[in-house]
């Protein structure tokens, strides 16, 4: 019965008729209902111009409330940014402006560039912790902290190895030390739960083209009230500042602008509301199926994939020995064959994986099935026998 349910879900993903798609960590394909939602949103513009602009704006605000609830925070603490690099650039500029002299940040060696480039470009020194067999223990991260460290910047799930960090343990340890916890949850949320209160997170970004099932719709950007008070935004746009009473647009000139106290201070200007309406539909799909059920499905698929890998001459680089470290991503290295050529060979057989750090990255999503995993294993075997 369970497989029949997932077969019906697969019908919403036409990609499954064309490919065995194991590249959701790059970009998830969108389900048909999301496509229809986005098309309808653009059809409104096609037929009515911006007559329904305020309606779309209100719906994206309602979505903001849904996302805030999923993070266990208030709507005033979340907004949208164009991508994680933009959000972290806001944070880096605020830290550069209001942070103490000579501070540094601690991060992880395997981080995706969006988690470090915005800070380093501002001239903020960063110390990078080295992994031990793909694992970053909380203890090792804390060892890197010195008297000038202002906080830790890291991903909930590492984009390459799929390592999932002990968020609550690390967050509480940093809070006890009075340090910031700045998190990129792009490779985890909404598949894996994020509770900004329990995890003591000060800043969080989530770009939804990975696991949000909506293509490039922007980034969820969370900041705590205490963070914004201590490190107010260093930049502004027309939606970041308060207009005159009774006005929608801040038309005043030659004045000292007052930024919103809420996360709206990061709203530089209009977003792609049509894509966000697709995200709204995708979140409805997640909630309809059940996020826990989706997570269990992905774990079952990766369990099976790992068991099949044991029969092949490959090294499993991802730290899969501990369930707490696992995610939807598995990174492997072929012992006696060329990884890049293997990825191309798989693609010729309509199996999509990716190369990361010279290795093969496989990301299982809930629309995948066990037959596709067998197909992937069989084609890998064929390649290595050539």
Summarize the structure.
This protein has 386 residues and is α/β, with parallel strands linked by helices.
Describe the structure.
With about 375 residues, the chain is an alpha/beta fold. It has two domains: about 1-20 and about 290-385, Aspartate Aminotransferase, domain 1 (Alpha-Beta Complex); about 35-285, Type I PLP-dependent aspartate aminotransferase-like (Major domain) (Aspartate Aminotransferase, domain 2, 3-Layer(aba) Sandwich). The chain has 13 helices and 13 strands. The protein has helices spanning about 1-10, 15-20, 30-50, 55-70, 85-100, 115-120, 140-145, 165-175, 225-230, 275-290, 290-310, 340-350, 370-385; strands at about 20, 80, 105-110, 125-130, 150-155, 180-185, 205, 220-225, 315, 330-335, 350, 355, 360-365. The strands form three sheets. Strands 2-8-7-6-5-3-4 form a seven-stranded mixed beta sheet, with helices on both faces. α8 (about 165-175) links the parallel β5 (about 150-155) and β6 (about 180-185). The two termini are about 40 Å apart.
């Amino acid at each position: 019965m369970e497989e029949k349910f997932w077969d019906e879900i697969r019908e919403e993903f036409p990609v499954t008729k064309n490919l065995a798609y194991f590249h959701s960590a790059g970009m998830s394909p969108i389900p048909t209902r999301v496509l229809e939602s986005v098309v309808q949103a653009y059809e409104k513009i096609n037929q009515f111009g911006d007559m329904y602009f305020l309606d779309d704006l209100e719906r994206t605000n309602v979505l903001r409330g849904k996302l805030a609830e999923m993070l266990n925070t208030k709507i005033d603490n979340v907004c949208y940014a164009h991508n994680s690099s933009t959000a972290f650039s806001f944070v880096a500029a605020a830290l550069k402006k209001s942070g103490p002299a000579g501070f540094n940040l601690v991060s992880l060696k395997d981080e995706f560039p969006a988690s470090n480039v915005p800070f380093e470009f501002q001239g903020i020194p960063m110390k990078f912790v080295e992994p031990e067999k793909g694992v970053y223990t909380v203890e090792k991260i804390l060892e890197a902290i010195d008297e000038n460290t202002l906080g830790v910047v890291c991903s909930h799930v590492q984009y390459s190895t799929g390592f999932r960090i002990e968020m609550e343990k690390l967050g509480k340890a940093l809070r006890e030390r009075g340090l910031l916890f700045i998190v990129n949850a792009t490779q985890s949320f909404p598949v894996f739960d994020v509770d900004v209160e329990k995890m003591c997170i000060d800043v969080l970004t989530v770009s939804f083209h990975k696991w949000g099932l909506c293509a490039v719709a922007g980034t969820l950007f969370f900041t705590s009230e205490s963070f914004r008070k201590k490190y107010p935004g260093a930049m502004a746009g027309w939606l970041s500042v308060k207009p005159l009473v009774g006005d929608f647009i801040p038309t005043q000139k030659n004045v000292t602008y007052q930024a919103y106290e809420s996360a709206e201070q990061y709203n530089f200007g209009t977003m792609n509301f049509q894509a966000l309406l697709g995200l709204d539909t995708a979140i409805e799909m997640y909630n309809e199926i059940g996020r826990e059920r989706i997570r269990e499905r992905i774990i079952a698929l990766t369990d099976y994939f790992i068991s099949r890998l044991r029969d092949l001459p490959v090294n499993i680089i991802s730290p899969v020995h501990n369930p707490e470290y696992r995610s939807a991503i598995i990174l492997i290295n072929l012992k006696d064959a060329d990884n890049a050529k293997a990825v191309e060979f798989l693609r010729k057989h309509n199996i999509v994986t990716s190369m990361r750090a010279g290795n093969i990255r496989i990301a299982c999503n809930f629309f995948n099935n066990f037959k596709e995993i067998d197909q992937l294993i069989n084609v890998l075997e064929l390649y290595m026998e050539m």
